[in-house]
UniProtKB/TrEMBL annotation:
Annotated Pfam families: Nitroreductase
One example GO MF annotation: oxidoreductase activity
PANTHER family associated with the record: NAD(P)H NITROREDUCTASE YDGI-RELATED (PTHR43673), NADH DEHYDROGENASE_NAD(P)H NITROREDUCTASE XCC3605-RELATED (PTHR43673:SF10)
Keywords: Oxidoreductase
Protein name, UniProt field: Nitroreductase
Gene3D superfamilies: NADH Oxidase (3.40.109.10)
Superkingdom of origin: Bacteria
Length: 252
């Protein structure tokens, strides 16, 4: 019988671990594909890709994301136009809007407590979602709570040391939601590749027009559009390259 230590050691093997080889193949073969074939993405495949997307790491498991799969023919036509008629949108088998939400943290905190897998819910978990999360996000009328939090944070740093900065402004909360939704978007693109399909994340779109199409509120922010499908022979426009790793990696 293989022990847990043996299993951990096998995962740490640098070059001959099947999981690592498969992961490398997925990451290294992923490209931003601009043209797709007419091959459809089966619903069960897309459902699994979205499930894997939602396994992305996210702050406090608050999951501030949404995925709008635009399948209706008329909506699809308008969405392609809103994507500036890019080939990645026009030829995609599925077109998906990745949306970050700034208004769900409180509801999701309470949903976590209702659906928490361990019962009874530990007191520290209740305290975290009822108190810590609330304090982190609350701004108050005219940001009055934010001003108090800012002052308290500065005092804490001077007296006791490092402390995480809470979210003082709407932009802070928007950045938080955007970061989390972006992690899910990357999972989605890698999942599509693992299923044998490809994708193209698009930042070139008319967000106000797309938000009207999807009937989104001011607390829902489209961070990217993703076109997905089977890679066409002429779907990749350029040879892939990256700058030297040493330019970006710093050991301090």
């Amino acid at each position: 019988m293989t022990s847990s230590t043996d299993k951990q050691a096998s995962f740490a093997t640098p070059d001959n671990t099947p999981q690592l080889q498969a992961f490398r193949e997925v990451v290294e073969s992923r490209r931003s594909v601009r043209r797709f074939t007419d091959t459809p993405i089966p619903d069960d495949v897309l459902t699994d890709c979205l499930r894997l997307a939602m396994l992305a790491p996210n702050s406090s498991n608050l999951q501030p994301w949404e995925f709008y799969v635009i399948d209706d023919a008329d909506n699809r036509k308008r969405a392609v136009k809103n994507c500036m008629n890019q080939n990645a949108a026009k030829t995609a088998a599925r077109l998906i809007a990745i949306v970050a939400r700034t208004d769900v943290w409180q509801d999701h905190a309470q949903q976590i407590l209702r659906e928490y897998p361990d019962t009874p819910v530990p007191k520290k978990v209740k305290d975290y979602y009822n108190k810590v999360v609330a304090l982190d996000f609350l701004r108050g009328p005219a940001n009055v709570v934010s001003a108090v939090k800012w002052s308290a944070t500065q005092v804490f740093r001077r007296v006791k040391g490092p402390i995480k900065s809470p979210y003082y402004t709407f932009e802070d909360t928007k950045n938080w939601a955007t970061n989390n939704a972006s992690l899910a978007a990357e999972n989605l693109m890698l999942a599509l590749r693992a299923h044998g399909f490809d994708s193209c994340p698009m930042g070139g779109f008319d967000e106000p027009a797309m938000k009207r199409l999807l009937d989104l509120s001011g607390d829902q922010h489209i961070i990217m559009m993703i076109g997905a499908g089977e890679r066409a022979d002429n779907g990749v426009y350029n040879t892939q390259f990256r700058f030297d790793q040493e330019q970006f990696v710093h050991y301090v």
